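User: Predict the full complex structure for these chains.
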Amino acid sequence: MIGIDWGTSSFRAFRIDAAGVVRERRAAPRGILAVEGGRFEAELRRQVGGWIEAGERHVLMSGMIGSRQGWREVPYVSCPAGLPEIAVGLASIACEGVEVRVVPGLACEDAAGTPEVMRGEETQILGVAAEIGGAALACLPGSHSKWARLEEGRIAAFETYFSGEAFAALRLHTILGRLMREGAGDDPEAFDRGVARAGEAGHLLHHLFGVRTLGLNGRLGEEAAASYLSGLLIGHEVRAALPRGGAPREADVQLIGAAALCELYARAIAAAGARAKVHGEEAAERGLALIGREVGWD
Amino acid sequence: MIGIDWGTSSFRAFRIDAAGVVRERRAAPRGILAVEGGRFEAELRRQVGGWIEAGERHVLMSGMIGSRQGWREVPYVSCPAGLPEIAVGLASIACEGVEVRVVPGLACEDAAGTPEVMRGEETQILGVAAEIGGAALACLPGSHSKWARLEEGRIAAFETYFSGEAFAALRLHTILGRLMREGAGDDPEAFDRGVARAGEAGHLLHHLFGVRTLGLNGRLGEEAAASYLSGLLIGHEVRAALPRGGAPREADVQLIGAAALCELYARAIAAAGARAKVHGEEAAERGLALIGREVGWD
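Assistant: Here is the predicted structure of the two-chain assembly.
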């Protein structure tokens, strides 16, 4: 089968054999926003037509390709949801000579009834869930970080944190950015200071102003201030998302995503007294292979 | 005497008689950023030269005019500070025919040693403190809201919240703004919903993402979303700044500032179970008059 992780800005394809092993990979900056006029089928054939000609008959796609802006909007499946529920929610797309299905996103509500959604992350999380089993906590850092609670191989519930996008807006469009040197690299020590600050008394909105006063007082350098702000936001997110007084096992976090960002989250998680295990980008291909097996494509 | 509240973007002058009563007022959009080449004395004479010619010999200025970007940088005075400490910290500026003094800003540190500063607000707060006496809590809403604890007529400590500027950056420069109608007016009901959300479990960074999901789900209209976001941020600020389990008297908040913004804060304070009393823009003139009396200018 062919598994495809088709997001807003990138396209990644995997040729997966009957044993669930990835035999070939392909990646292109052809996210759904780059595909003009909704010509997704043409793009698909351009990218993996060779595999189809070579005999692949099944294509499974996850990510924003299943959103309103994608090829076909697939309704969200409600949590708790695992492989069986997602298999039932798959949408079929008619394509000559090949069976194409799209993975649904997941929806849930927090305790107060506010809706939550994800699209694409569910496939990555299930790719990791198979490996760990039992109860666990998964985190996918990003512009809108997702934290998901796993129970018996299912995603029981999840919540989203706006930290990544808030960081960008605060750095680029507030007075805080005026004390930051443009293009300054990562400063792990300043990041850790921001994380430590997040663990102190006080609300994030108060801690933010400290970025400025520390800078004005010469206690936070221009080249370090962006890393400090990043640590402050990630530190707040991690402390809010980690269960309080949970068993150590439940406080272990399965981090899924790009290595550099996962490394930062792992530092913040360690500072909060929990442990992190980092999973690479292979989570998506593993999740696609598992969903394919669930529908009998192996 | 002549009292002047000279901030970043505005200039307000008061002619105050020996009884501390304001006899004349003048206001102009001539904040320190609008005065080119540091010609503050010329600007002062343009605005209130007539009062000086009429016999006023004392000019007292507060606000950003005492900052590095102003006429003369006046060192901060450390909290706790009241009228006597501020009188000692006044800086004199040589000006022909008139005695000019500048009110110092205040500095303090929070429990973790992070610095805090204010410049101009101390004068407004002391203008109100005289009226209430004893222990109290004052809040000056704005881009960088100040919350000050008053004890026996002195500002014991204060802290700043970045809510106002964070609101502008989140609304104008993140995906949250895409679901907001430009130019939508205030929506008190949506504001109250945001305030209520701030009182529910969950971190601000998680609540922010809810602005998007509620919008996508049709549960928060385009014309209401900005007010909801405002309520969310102000609600978080108010709950963080109010003392927990304090005596009711200490939970009363003296709000000082523009009427419309104070009204929003008063709603959020009421929702958190405390009470607010709104003081208008007269706080600055009263504070200037009191400092003038403290140095014998009456």
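Chain B has a mean pLDDT of 94.
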